[in-house]
Design goal:
By secondary structure, the chain is of the alpha/beta class. It folds into three domains: 2-137 and 305-337, NAD(P)-binding Rossmann-like Domain (Rossmann fold, 3-Layer(aba) Sandwich), CATH 3.40.50.720; 143-302, Dihydrodipicolinate Reductase, domain 2; 345-427, Alpha-Beta Plaits. The chain is built from 14 helices and 20 strands. Strands 7, 9, 10, 11, 12, 13, 15, 16, 17, 18, 19 and 20 form a twelve-stranded mixed β-sheet that branches. A six-stranded parallel β-sheet has the order 3-2-1-4-5-6, sandwiched between helices. Strand 4 (75-78), helix 4 and strand 5 (103-106) form a beta-alpha-beta unit. The protein is elongated. The site of L-homoserine has 11 residues, from helix 7.
């Protein structure tokens, strides 16, 4: 039996999930791979920390380079993430391993989104770069785009690709739980990033969207150019109105081809409660794909957490081990081109707008007139409660350009009777 050694960097959530999957399923992995995968060493920062898995103590080291530089270890699995919000350590470890001709497996979407081009260029003739765990946790997304949908032109993707925010929004909607409490629970469950603002502010979803765009559309983008809004402005009141209007609020990552340009955005979105994505709850993720040949397709599964991500990382380890045993490299990612991003101002959507106003006659007409002046037509309007100050008024618009809606909102904010524009949420029409 051929033995292929693995150097595991990190033994946190994903590292433990990887270790547990490799050890629990070792015999079926041998049967499938035709080789035995052996963890030769595990790099950590703190040798004495209590962990969710207990590999033999002699495997642990604080010297990651001793694994990366060991010529008998052909596969390096990076699960250290970005300690102190710094991508350099993981990037440097991966570059060093790739320069030595190794196969590198990672679930680090931030490093891939920020340094993917450099990493791909560093893949040696005998090595490879694998990242199934980087997008949507346990859902096999990378292989689906690379292999199963290779014959399609993918025209659009709408994804719930951050487990933490989906978990938070689900519990806020269903149980009325406060944001802070649910975020803490997501951290305890191992879903959140080391800096959870990466989840809450939509950065994590934007990294994954950049990867999806490169895999599905063949276009490379600067992640900073992706329009991004997080979920921290979503209030229980908005979730309540959304339900009343027949919608569910999700943090969606959207990629859509439009002629020669591509629309890329991450923001909270109201989707009809009958849409397949609306029922994706908790830390589950789903990617809703439209391809010219396949039509509509939805991939669904756990998007975060130790074991689901371990499952994806181990799948990559098996691929890498088979390649090592055969002495071959994986087919390189297809050549990428820069794409033209559609400016957000030109994006067309329906909008939910909640305005805090003085409750007096003529207010509705004044608000409606600002929307009308900007050419934005209103589909529905709700005002609840009387005699409070301020009172909420909710509009849902017909499809309109972002630029026009922002113009209408400037007019609305300037009205004397308006306290504030409390929320603006884009809506996927039913
Ligand atoms: P954790 O913080 O749980 O684990 C990080 C691990 O890396 C820890 O074991 C830490 O050691 C170790 N580490 C950090 N710096 C070093 C270093 N310089 N040398 C050696 N070891 C080091 O992170 P996660 O497992 O949650 O995430 C890891 C990566 O996987 C991230 O890129 C994340 O975005 C990604 N990911 C996470 C998912 C999840 O559900 N959590 C899902 C999909 C992807 P020590 O324990 O001693 O401090
Ligand atoms: N923090 C990420 C999430 C982990 O919540 O989706 C999975 O990438």
């Amino acid at each position: 039996m051929n033995v292929v050694k693995i150097g595991l960097l990190g033994l946190g959530n994903v590292g433990c999930g990887t270790w547990l999957t490799l050890t629990t399923n070792s015999s079926s992995i041998v049967a499938r791979a035709g080789v035995k995968l052996e963890v030769a060493g595990i790099a950590v920062r703190d040798l004495n920390k209590r962990r969710l898995a207990s590999p033999p103590a002699e495997l642990l080291t604080t010297d990651a380079l001793s694994l990366i530089d060991d010529p008998s270890i052909p596969i390096i699995v990076e699960t250290i993430g970005c300690p102190h919000q710094d991508t350099r350590i993981a990037r440097d470890f991966m570059l060093r391993a790739l320069a030595a001709g190794k196969h590198v497996v990672t679930a680090n979407k931030e490093v891939l989104a920020k340094h993917g081009r450099e990493l791909r260029a560093a893949v040696g003739a005998s090595g490879g770069l694998y990242y199934e765990g980087a997008v949507a946790g346990g859902i096999p997304v990378v292989k689906v785009f690379r292999e199963s949908l290779a014959g399609n032109t993918v025209t659009s993707i709408m994804g719930i690709i951050n487990g933490t925010t989906n978990y938070i929004l689900t519990r806020m909607s269903h149980e009325g739980s406060p944001f802070g409490d649910v975020l803490r629970a997501a951290q305890e469950l191992g879903y959140a990033e080391q800096d959870p603002s990466s989840d809450v502010d939509g950065h994590d979803a934007a990294y994954k969207l950049a990867l999806l765009c490169s895999m599905a559309i063949g276009a490379e983008v600067n992640v900073e150019d992706i329009f991004r809004e997080g979920i921290s402005g979503i209030t229980p009141e908005d979730l309540h109105y959304a339900a009343e209007l027949g919608y569910t609020v999700k943090l969606l990552a959207i990629a859509r081809r439009d002629g020669g340009s591509v629309e890329l955005r991450v923001h909270p979105t109201m989707i009809p409660s009958s849409h397949p994505l609306a029922s994706v709850g908790g830390a589950f993720n789903a990617v809703f794909i439209q391809g010219d040949a396949v039509g509509d397709l939805m991939l669904y599964g756990m998007g975060a957490g130790m074991m689901p991500t371990g499952s994806a990382v181990v799948a990559d380890c098996i691929d890498a081990a088979i390649n090592v045993a055969r002495g071959v490299s994986p087919v390189p990612d297809r050549r990428e081109q820069r794409c033209t991003l559609k400016p957000m101002d030109d994006v067309v959507s329906c909008y939910y707008v909640r305005v805090q106003v003085v409750d007096e006659p003529g207010v509705m007409a004044a608000l409606a007139s600002e929307f009308g002046r900007a050419g934005v037509s209103i589909e529905s309007l709700i005002q609840k409660g009387r005699g409070q100050d301020p009172v909420s008024v909710v509009f849902v618009t017909h499809a309109a350009r972002e630029r026009s809606v922002q113009e209408a909102l400037r007019g609305v904010r300037a009205l004397d009777v308006v306290h504030s524009v409390a929320s603006v949420i884009r809506v996927v029409a039913g």
